[in-house]
Design brief:
It is built from 14 helices and nine strands.
């Protein structure tokens, strides 16, 4: 053990985001060595690796914050309305794994500190806004939380032992210890203030694209060829209208169901009409919800989607077509690469500054 401890200099340990080609290895190691395994990182997420001279020492996974946590919410002091608006400013350290091998004193707390120092900036670059608070939950039957305490996290107490299951909460009896780390010195004030704080991060709004009636008609015709993968019961929106909205949002730069849902909320009535969205009895167009978008993305055959999207984009810049290139924010050569992130592949820099991840169920 002594040789192992002297083999690593803490000052030379680095923490970085994984690159696309490392995703499969990261997931496999987490499933193999973490006691919880790995099914998915809920909502928006980031994956990190800690390394020393190219050798992987640890893996860290960040995901969207817990929807409800009484001790955390009391510490923040926010109202229910503000919680819904600002929960996106908190990230959850849902996985932290020291890989088998050398064990060095203070290694875990050093890695946590390095990760926290860059977390908000990375989150803003990938997801469009920064963070003000980090949280995690520790199983006291397995861990004492020593490395979190050494990295200056705050211990708030215990959960009530419930877990979210679909639309309800189920008691599992295994209470966790709650830890917080303010990424901003006024984190609680920013999150709980009735008026927006000057340092409150603002999400970047994705640009809105426009379509001619001819372009919209051809798009709907193409994606209408894709077999409807949903159960017949409970369908409210037509699949082709849903896909039309999703594809226009993705082409405009939206990533994940949350940003796609936000983009759809800003669609003009004219575009809702062009994409033949559902109308109410009063004649108003009904916008698909984020949960509807997420469920469809989990089931849709991506290969068919890529093929139809690529063919449609190619038509927009082909000689003699009715559309003009200015209405298409991406060139046809990037069609497959724009759609590819829905299959959890990396999005090339030419398509966007960050990748679109396929939505996974929580």
């Amino acid at each position: 053990m002594k040789d192992a401890e002297t083999a690593i200099e803490l000052s030379r340990v680095q923490v970085r985001l994984i690159v696309p080609g490392e995703r499969a290895t990261w997931d496999e190691l987490m499933r193999e060595h973490h006691y919880l395994g790995l099914k998915a990182l809920v909502g928006r997420s980031l994956r990190y690796v800690a390394q020393y001279e190219g050798r992987w020492l640890a893996l860290l996974g960040w995901a969207s914050a817990a929807l409800k946590c009484a001790p955390r919410d009391a510490w923040i002091g926010w109202s229910g309305a503000l919680q819904w608006q600002r929960l996106r400013l908190i990230a959850n350290n849902s996985r932290f794994l020291l890989l088998p091998g050398a064990r060095v004193k203070n290694l875990a707390s050093r890695i946590l500190g390095l990760n926290l120092a860059r977390l908000s900036e990375d989150w803003e670059r990938v997801h469009g806004h920064g963070l003000v608070l980090a949280e995690t939950f520790i199983d006291p039957s397995r861990f004492a939380g020593t490395c979190y305490r050494a990295a200056n996290w705050l211990e708030l107490g215990a959960t009530r032992g419930f877990a979210k299951s679909n639309r309800t909460y189920v008691q599992h009896g295994a209470a966790k210890r709650i830890w917080l780390f303010p990424l901003h010195p006024k984190a609680a004030q920013i999150l709980s203030g009735a008026w927006p704080h000057p340092d409150l991060p603002h999400p970047e709004l994705k640009p809105m694209m426009s379509l001619t009636d001819t372009q919209a008609q051809e798009l709907l015709s193409r994606i209408g060829r894709i077999e409807d993968v949903r159960a017949r019961r409970g369908r409210r929106h037509s699949q082709r209208s849903l896909l039309g909205c999703i594809l226009c949002a993705v082409i405009s730069g939206a990533k994940g169901s949350t940003e796609i849902g936000e983009w759809i909320e800003r669609m003009s009535p004219a575009m809702l009409r062009q994409l033949r969205c559902r109308r109410t009895a009063a004649g108003e167009y009904q916008r698909p919800s984020e949960s509807t978008v997420r469920r469809l993305l989990q089931k849709i055959p991506v290969e068919s989607l890529e093929q139809e999207l690529g063919g449609w984009l190619q038509r927009q810049v082909a000689p003699g077509t009715a559309g003009s290139k200015k209405n298409t924010p991406r060139s046809p050569s990037t069609a497959r690469r724009c759609a590819a992130p829905m299959t959890e592949k990396a999005r090339p820099g030419s398509c966007s500054r960050s990748s679109i991840k396929r939505v996974e169920s929580s």
